[in-house]
Amino acid sequence: MIRFLGVCVQNLITCIKYLFGGNQRFKTVISQAAAVSYDSLVISLVIAFIAAAVITIQVSKEFLMTGAEAYIGGTIAIVMIREIAPGFVALAIGARAGTAISAEIANMQVTSQVDAIKTLKIDPVGYYFTPRILGAAITVPMVVLIAEFIGIAGGMAVAEGTIGLHPARYWHSVWAWMHTKDIYISLLKACIFGGLIALVCASKGYETKGGAKEVGTSTTKAAILSTIYMLVTDFLINLLFYIA
């Protein structure tokens, strides 16, 4: 894992050089952004809604017993914005789009398409990686922002349906507890998670050697590694902004 982290850093530096070299086409970035985030939008929102609904069910009864039901909205908002939305959306996109990126590049590697690009004197890392990393880093925060609203609204619906909490009390708590700083940190997380997932999955796919069997193995390892790196990064970001 440490060696692979070094490989990812080297690939990221190559992509930055490729980007600032003026070689990247905007149309390609848009295409990859749609493949990464737009195609994962529905499943991400469903996961956010279900997560918020489950948390609301868990806390509503306890809050009602202690007379603190007015704080349910704020609790759901903080949990969704700080952790659930960026984390779960990133996991969903990693499972769907990240593995697709890894499989696509691994297939290019084993079918010698990468070697063909090299013969044209084009850097395959910059050419293949840069639009995917940019597309993910730009659009994942958009999906997270929508997921946060869906999750908070879903929590309101569940709270009203289970314990009869009035929507006005719910939203009053949301606005009282929610801070702009939390939204900014949430979007920063989403941006980093999106770029990290694309970078890790693309790097793992690029290392693939052999045939079709190795493509599947690389895809599986890419999903595992991207999840581990994302969780470690999530811990470090929380440590930086909420503890330090």
Task: Please give a structural write-up.
The chain is an all-alpha fold and 244 residues long. The chain has one domain (25-236). Helices cover 86% and strands 0% of the residues. It has nine helices and no strands. Helix 4 (72-110) crosses helix 7. The radius of gyration is 20 Å and the shape is elongated. The two termini are 27 Å apart. The model has no long low-confidence stretch (mean pLDDT 89).
What is the straight-line distance between the termini? 27 Å
SS summary, helix count: 9
Count up the domains: 1
Mean pLDDT: 89
Oligomerization category of the chains in this entry: single chain
State the helical fraction. over 70%
Sketch the major β-sheet.
none
Radius of gyration: 20 Å
Label this structure with key terms.
single chain; 244 residues; mainly alpha; 9 helices; elongated
SSE arrangement:
Elements: H1 2-20, H2 26-36, H3 41-65, H4 72-110, H5 113-119, H6 124-163, H7 167-177, H8 180-206, H9 212-243
Helix pairs in contact: 1-6, 1-8, 2-6, 3-4, 3-6, 4-6, 4-7, 4-8, 4-9, 6-7, 6-8, 8-9
Structure at a glance:
The protein has 244 residues and is mainly alpha-helical. The chain has helices at 2-20, 26-36, 41-65, 72-110, 113-119, 124-163, 167-177, 180-206, 212-243. It is 86% helix and 0% strand.
